[in-house]
Write a structure and sequence with these properties.
This protein is an all-alpha fold. Helix content is 81%, strand content 0%. The protein has helices at 2-30, 34-41, 47-68, 75-105, 116-149.
């Protein structure tokens, strides 16, 4: 169980780090004009190919930890919260970020749609929500692991 918890924590950190990066840069990106924001989006090209499997792995390992923690409190509750957060991150991505990513892929810098700022707000705020969920999940998994190490779970 300790090895599984360790793997889960490593994946949780790898999931949280880029999400926090999005949150930290949000104020500056919300101040960008259309062409600058559009250009900045290319910094994230192909992130999904790398981060998607990490996020999926984080969810799978956390669900496995949840199954292994059944009957042991508070580890079970904390891990259940983490799993719910990771599911929430996926829902948020597929409902908000993925459609914006698809739309932006069809744009050109010289012909942004008139409502481009709405797309920017949806993308930035969704990533901020995902960052908060990733943080809560990381804290819950860390607390569960510490509780088990202390013999409290």
């Amino acid at each position: 169980m300790r090895v599984l918890r360790f793997i889960g924590l490593i994946l949780a950190v790898l999931t949280f780090a880029p999400a926090f990066g999005h949150l930290a840069e949000m104020p500056n990106k919300m101040a960008l004009g259309g062409q600058a924001w559009y250009a900045a989006q290319f910094l994230y090209r192909d992130w999904g190919a790398f981060l998607g499997p990490i996020e999926a792995g984080t969810l799978v390992v956390s669900a496995w930890l949840l199954w292994r923690a059944r009957g042991r409190q508070p580890a079970f509750t904390l891990t259940a919260i983490a799993v719910a957060c990771y599911i929430g991150m996926q829902i948020c991505f597929w409902l908000f970020n993925a459609p914006v990513n698809a739309a932006v892929a069809s744009w050109t810098a010289s012909a942004l749609p008139p409502d481009w700022a709405e797309y920017r707000a949806r993308w930035e705020w969704s990533h901020s929500v995902r960052a908060v969920l990733a943080f809560v999940a990381l804290v819950c998994l860390l607390r569960a692991a510490l509780g088990e190490a202390e013999g409290n779970a």
